[in-house]
Amino acid sequence: MFAALGEALVDLIEHPDGRYEPCLGGSVCNFARAMARQGQRIRYLNPLSSDTFGQRFVARLQADGVDLGQMPRSACPTSLAVVSLGPGGVPSYTFHRQHVADRDGTADELIARLPAALRLIHTGGLALAPGDWAKVHTVLRAARLRGAVVSVDANLRPVVVGPGAADQAAYVNAVRQALGMAQIVKLSDEDVRALGWNSADLNAVGTQLLSNPMTQLVAFTLGADGAMLMTRQACVQLPVPAAVAVVDTVGAGDCFQAGLLAWLAHEHHLTADALGQLTVSDLEAALRHAMATAAINVQRKGCEPPGWDETRAWLRA
């Protein structure tokens, strides 16, 4: 069984007429939904609020097949990200993340919610911000001691920690520490730049990450330029699939990572030893499935991940 550790938040999106539309999201929550739709058993670990938004999250996660275990409901409100439109329609983000439900609970409480037969734990996004990193680090370490593979999607959101240089440096440091604990690492080209690395030389970035004995597989998502997978033995890069009519890109990276891990699980490659032995053919097949999962999602409004059979059929077509 898989586990997902990280935020569930509501994006309040401003429309040109001044209305705000609430959209359930959060990187790790989106990932959990995508994994469940890909046919994998997964538990979402963080508490959900007893407020109206929290009830909607419970309903949506359960409808997608995500396991919530015996999760207690938090009296804290659901996290919010207010997305406002500035001049020219350029969005700006304001996060409301103090005393919220998905940050409620101790490391010990989260560890107690880990599934007994844990194969992999995934985290990233806002869970790697300095205020949460110590707790997340403790949970990841406990999962590793149980033999679980660790997957980290950096998915940096620098605005969440404020503009101060010290806060930004602490955030980057926490993300780098998290990447160092993972067998599977995912970075966007934007993440690479935010971490102070050269996005024009991803082979060098991947080689640096793979110099850590823990890391076995590195995934780069490159927007319109496609995506790349790297191991110590091989590297595969593919362009964006043809004839993809983008509606929006909400959840694209989360769906990519879910598709990648679902393929690896389906083909029995989701162990530290097996990850280190992936061939070029394996990497290409895994990357095609991951990119197809994301491609289907971006042709829909919001995060609406495809199922396993739908993704396989899309690839055949």
UniProtKB/TrEMBL annotation:
Carbohydrate kinase PfkB domain span: 5-305
Keyword Protein transport: no
Residues passing through the membrane, by range: none
InterPro entries associated with the record: Carboh/pur_kinase_PfkB_CS, PfkB_Carbo_kinase, PfkB_dom, Ribokinase-like
Keywords, alphabetical: ATP-binding, Kinase, Nucleotide-binding, Transferase
Keyword flag Kinase: yes
Single annotated GO MF: ATP binding
Family: Belongs to the carbohydrate kinase PfkB family.
Name used for this protein in its record: Carbohydrate kinase
